[in-house]
Design goal:
Helix content is 16%, strand content 28%. The chain is α+β, with helices and mostly antiparallel strands.
């Protein structure tokens, strides 16, 4: 389904039904970048980011925690509640601010 966009640097946006470290790794190998909300129970998700309830208590609004799993950036960002997502689009070393 997505073969025409391989090797073109296209961005693929997914929701938590489809997002996984495995999918992000596969797409990155084909030069298709991805970002999307994620489920923390999927294989490859960093253990330290699995307990969203606990992380939600540690983070203030707009803050995030990020770890790499097989070179894929896995993040938890706090809005009203913590949101898990996967990212291969932006630089994991960049600093951003959300207000």
């Amino acid at each position: 389904m997505v073969e025409p966009i391989y090797n073109n640097g296209h961005h693929i946006y997914t929701d938590n039904f489809f997002s996984s470290v495995r999918l992000a790794t596969s797409l990155r190998e084909k030069e298709a970048l991805t970002i999307g909300t994620a489920r923390t129970g999927y294989k490859g998700w960093p253990q330290a980011l699995k307990d969203l309830k606990s992380l939600g208590k540690q983070l203030n609004h707009g803050e995030e925690i990020s770890l790499l799993s097989n070179g894929i950036q896995c993040l938890v960002w706090k809005d009203k509640r913590p949101v898990a997502y996967i990212n291969t689009i932006s630089d994991p070393n960049a600093t951003t601010h959300v207000f």
